[in-house]
Design goal:
289 residues, alpha/beta, Rossmann fold, 12% strand, oxidoreductase, SDR family oxidoreductase
Length: 289
């Protein structure tokens, strides 16, 4: 495992909620369900939020399909999770790179891309998965610091990473952004979060048109309620956790390994005629595309 130096600029913000999968009693299921078929052999992927949850499942599946994978995680509390993900990547016979820092900081985003290319040799797939959410019952409860932080992590980071990655991407490369079912259905207590997800969907569709002529595909995945550290560690009100995901037609939250295949499909040549699209692993909720 290759571990980069930590880069965490001083930012005035509300307390963060690092989600530590290692400490969860009911651990999310990240394991790929099938043997690999070599769909990403020779590719290099950079996965933000790759230490746990959907990011870990995506990193594991990419590695199983033959990619070398760099992951980004934010907080020191998440280091053990990140090391576990690195062990998963290496157990698939692939090379991994572990980067710690704030994806909402342009300087770190540039350094993360540079280190990925210098260490793993290239960059073919950018999976923008890292995100944060802070529930508030009233719009007046959302502080300016929280609003800025949520947008910085969820959408600014995607601009910064795409800008840094752009010179390294070539025909056949793929960018996959993580939006959310809340972009389509709205969310009464995640106003700032769902707003960033709307921005991500618009960013995905616009960027796809910008890069299509160069053969670079840009798509997104809009998960529904997925069992990851984000929610029990403050992403949802504690009193609502018992019923988390039960309002979907399937009556349960999804697992990260039920979302990762959507990222794989959009990353590989199976999706060679798709760009500007959104896939919806959301437990059966019918939403606009």
């Amino acid at each position: 495992m290759r571990q980069s130096q930590s880069f965490q600029p001083a930012i005035h913000e509300e307390p963060r909620m690092p989600g530590t999968e290692d400490k969860m009693a009911d651990k999310p299921d990240w394991r790929p369900r099938y043997p690999g078929s070599g769909r990403l052999v020779g590719k290099v992927a950079l996965v933000t939020g790759g230490d746990s949850g959907i990011g870990r499942a995506v990193a594991a599946l990419f590695a199983r399909e033959g990619a070398d994978v760099a992951i980004i995680y934010m907080a020191n509390e998440e280091r053990k999770d990140a090391e576990h993900t690195m062990a998963i990547i290496e157990s698939e016979g692939r090379e991994g790179l572990c980067l710690q820092g704030d994806v909402g900081c342009r300087q770190f985003a540039e350094e993360a891309v540079t280190e990925t290319v210098e260490t793993l040799g290239r960059l073919d797939i950018l999976a923008n998965i890292a995100g944060e959410q802070h529930p508030d019952d009233e719009v007046t409860d959302i502080t300016e610091a929280q609003l800025r932080r949520t947008f910085q992590t969820n959408i600014y980071s995607m601009f910064f990473l795409v800008q840094a990655a752009r010179p390294h991407l070539r025909k056949g490369s793929a960018i996959i952004n993580c939006t959310s079912v809340t972009m389509y259905e709205g969310s009464r207590n995640l106003l700032d979060y769902s707003s960033t997800k709307g921005a991500i969907t618009a960013f995905t569709r616009s960027l796809s048109k910008s890069l299509a002529e160069d053969g670079i595909r840009v798509n997104a995945v809009a998960p529904g309620p997925i069992w990851t550290p984000l929610n029990p560690y403050g992403g949802q009100p504690p009193e609502e956790m018992e019923d988390f995901g039960k309002n979907t037609p399937m009556g349960r939250p999804g697992q990260p390994n039920e979302v990762a295949p959507a990222f794989l499909f959009l990353a590989c040549e199976d999706a060679s005629y798709m760009s500007g699209q959104v896939l919806h692993p959301n437990g059966g909720s019918i939403v606009g595309s």
